[in-house]
TrEMBL record:
Residues 160-307 form the Helicase ATP-binding domain. CDD domains: DEXHc_RE_I_III_res, SF2_C_EcoAI-like. Residues 361-519 form the Helicase C-terminal domain. The lineage of its organism: Bacteria, Bacillati, Bacillota, Clostridia, Lachnospirales. Pfam families: Helicase_C (PF00271), ResIII (PF04851). This is Helicase conserved C-terminal domain-containing protein. Keywords: ATP-binding, Helicase, Hydrolase, Nucleotide-binding. SUPFAM superfamilies: P-loop containing nucleoside triphosphate hydrolases. The keyword DNA-binding does not apply.
């Protein structure tokens, strides 16, 4: 990452997070992954400033100062190295967007407008969960089984796979032996909402027929070509149609996902769909392959469909159980400034970089876990070096390591830690660099963070399996903080209200029950004999987490997009107390974010007579609006005709092109001796300027479409855009219908004049 100059006390990273929050909502900033590690094509370690997953696509965001990519200002080697980094990101299949620090400082509105253009008005952000093991998968070969019982054997095997918490499977059956029948029977037995995907309409229709015959007590629909059955229990869809309409489906809408002809899964369209949905179980179907490639297909599935959650990974023995000890400090973080998901680093350093807290960390290690291999996560390079020095002075083999070190030196330190020559590793900004020491027994969370991604990345570094490793012990250093800037801890992360020092916070239900039985007898679990804690110690933890609270709510920003009413009306109703938010989050003295529950949204929509708008009805509402268009002037149909003529494939039109279209439309009428407009219209007068026409377009015809969230004006780019989810779904036939309606409306209007 570029070594940025501070801007008014904020780093460029903080500035970007702030602009991102203003654009998409403060709760969405939690999806930004800062300093994401990857390898370039030469296997050199690299870091993307930010990584984001949007609709199954990874997006890298780079923030640079102007000198970083100018060959006349930086060395040729540095310039070429930066090109290699960007090209390697593209090679990995990422989209890459870059902004300059100067733009964040001087052109914030431009950056926000460009973010909306690049990421969309209605983005589908998802957490990046690469700290978890991939799904367990298994290929089931049915090619050599007797026809009469092979399907039942396959069903039994699939049942056993799910009992073992396996979440993906591949079924090999020779052509003509009833793969689809087996899949439908398994889906019926599971009894949950199902999506069947195939790459041809013939396969889709055949599957729908089989579902209707074998599972007749639920509804089955087709989502392909011109047929779009959306509300059935089973949907058989073409991969192309589903991929084009992902925004109409929730990512967890289907519990069972079936992929027919699974060898096609490497295609981009399949990758997009597989990475979007989060089913409980995914089944791939394929005929017995000519070569043994089931491992390749399973790898495709494992890296595109959803990952195991961390609790399930522990349950099935992929990760070790986790215990926790909370160490309370007297440090007050309540006044530390923060930007959505991270503290202002200077404020944070000034609070936690104090001798007393640093010594507490050292004393805790010496008292509780001396000689156990430990990673201490620190807030900065300086913090890591200070802790390492204090431990070294106490006779402990400790070293600091960070992303700022030379790669070769960093590797040497890591190797010494892996060999056990270094007992304590004080780490800063070194979370996902491919380093892995399964023998790590203890983690110290000494870096306060409001980022769920960062905290759980740190946790993942210690959860790998190792011989003789019963569990991982996490020490949470709990500083005092305000309600809305409390850092993450194990108990907040996993919503655990009860705390017993050293007790399991992540483990199987069987382990937890057995341990609870010992506590009730006043005994400590055997695994904790070495830990100096009392079995009777107990406290209740305040696990309020505004990010979790807001997760299922709608921000005021989103509220406006969901109803056919102006932004100003919503703001006024909130200000006057006619609408009461369910959650108010004060980010600073001057920044407050308001959230509403879904039922609250529906209640106010009904109370005030507003129409609810979502992805499924937005296009229909737009078409209804066009068909019912009321006209005081001729402007609305002229605007629509101009959009149809000049819009690019994404529905964007330059405002200057619309101005030219309006000018020529009314000039042509004038030249033909036709009525131009009402006498008070600017088009009926002489000497009308482009600026007047622009103001007229934005204040009259456009405003109504904007209020309905059907069009947007990107001021800094001089562009008007039809809502992407509307434009993308408009068929050529519907565009022709709009044109016809506009011409008819104009004809009726001018006859009336």
């Amino acid at each position: 990452m570029t070594n940025y100059q501070s801007v008014s006390g904020s780093s460029a990273e903080n500035l970007f997070i702030e602009l991102f929050s203003d654009t998409f909502g403060v709760e969405k900033a939690g999806y930004l992954y800062s300093q994401y590690h990857f390898y370039d094509i030469y296997q050199n370690s690299r870091y993307a400033d930010f990584l984001l997953e949007n609709g199954g696509k990874k997006i890298a965001i780079e923030i640079d100062d102007e000198a970083s990519h100018n060959p006349s200002l930086v060395s040729r080697n540095k310039f070429y190295d930066d090109l290699l980094k960007q090209n390697s990101m593209v090679y990995l299949g990422w989209d890459v967007y870059r902004w300059a620090v100067h733009q964040l400082q001087q052109q914030p509105e431009l950056v926000k407008d460009e973010l909306r253009i690049f990421l969309g008005q209605h983005p589908h952000f998802r957490e990046i969960e690469d700290y978890l093991p991939t799904q367990k998968g298994k290929a089931l070969d049915g090619s050599n089984l007797e026809l009469k019982d092979h399907q039942q054997k396959a069903l039994d095997a699939l049942k056993e796979m799910r009992k073992a918490h396996e979440s993906i499977g591949l079924l090999h059956h020779a052509t003509g032996t009833g793969k689809t029948v087996t899949a439908v029977s398994d889906a019926k037995r599971m009894g949950k909402k199902t999506l069947f995907l195939a790459h041809t309409i013939e396969l889709v229709e055949q599957a729908a027929k089989t579902f209707r015959e074998l599972w007749s007590d639920v509804t089955t629909g087709v989502f392909a070509d011109n047929q779009k059955d959306r509300d059935t229990f089973v949907i058989c869809g073409s991969i192309q149609s589903i991929a084009l309409h992902l925004d109409e489906f929730k990512e967890d809408e289907f519990s069972y996902l079936i992929i027919d002809e699974a060898h096609h899964a490497a295609a981009d369209t399949y990758q997009k769909v597989l990475s979007y949905f989060k089913p409980d179980f995914t089944l791939g179907l394929t005929a017995t392959p000519e070569r043994t490639d089931e491992a390749d297909i399973l790898d495709i599935f494992k890296y595109t469909v959803h990952r195991l959650d961390i609790q399930t990974a522990v349950e099935i023995g992929e990760l070790v159980p986790v215990r926790c000890i909370r160490i309370h400090t007297n440090i007050d973080l309540s006044k530390v400034r923060f930007h959505s998901v991270q503290y202002h680093i200077r404020d944070l350093e000034s609070k936690i970089f104090v001798p007393e807290r640093n010594q507490l960390i050292v004393d805790t290690w010496l008292q509780y876990v001396k000689d156990k291999r430990t990673v201490i996560f620190c807030a900065s390079v300086k913090h890591a070096e200070e802790i390492a020095e204090r431990l070294y002075q106490a006779g402990v083999a400790a070293e600091a390591v960070s992303g700022a070190m030379k790669a070769s030196l960093r590797q040497e330190v890591m190797e010494r830690f892996q060999k056990g020559e270094v007992k304590v590793l004080c780490a800063c900004d070194l979370l996902n660099e491919g380093w892995d020491c399964p023998e790590t027994e203890v983690l110290f969370m000494a870096r306060p963070t409001m980022s769920k991604v960062l905290y759980i990345q740190q946790l993942g570094r210690g959860m790998r399996l190792a011989e003789g490793k019963e569990s991982l012990m996490v020490f949470d250093f709990v500083d005092n903080a305000g309600q809305f800037n409390t850092p993450y801890s194990m108990h907040r992360m996993f919503r655990l209200k009860e705390y017993r020092p050293g007790a399991l916070v992540l483990g199987s239900e069987k382990q937890k029950r057995a341990e609870q039985g010992l506590y009730e007898k006043g005994e400590r679990p055997y695994a904790m004999i070495d830990w100096p804690v009392d079995a009777l110690d107990y406290e209740v933890v305040d696990i309020f987490n505004w990010q979790e609270e807001a997760a299922g709510m709608i921000s005021q920003m989103e509220f406006v997009r969901r109803v056919n009413v102006q932004t100003e009306t919503i703001e006024r109703y909130v200000r006057e107390g006619k609408m009461i938010p369910d959650l108010v989050v004060p980010m600073s003295e001057h920044r407050v974010f308001k959230y509403f529950k879904e039922e609250t949204l529906k209640q106010y929509a009904e109370q005030f007579g507003w129409t609810l708008i979502d992805e499924s009805n937005r296009k229909q509402l737009f078409m209804d609006m066009v068909r019912q268009m009321d006209m005081s002037y001729s402007y609305k149909p002229v605007l629509l005709l101009g959009v149809l003529q000049h819009a690019d494939p994404k529905g964007r039109v330059k405002l200057e092109d619309l101005v030219a279209f309006f000018k020529s439309f009314y000039a042509e009428r004038k030249e033909k001796g036709l009525v131009v407009e009402k006498a008070n219209s600017i088009y009926a007068k002489e000497g009308t300027t482009d600026r007047q026409i622009e103001r007229n377009i934005l204040s009259n015809p456009f405003k109504r479409f904007e209020d309905m969230q059907m069009m947007y004006h990107t001021k800094t780019l001089g562009v008007i855009q039809v809502d992407e989810s509307v434009w993308r779904k408009l068929t050529e036939g519907e565009k022709q219908e709009i044109k016809k309606i506009c011409l008819e409306k104009l004809d009726t209007y001018y006859k009336r004049l």
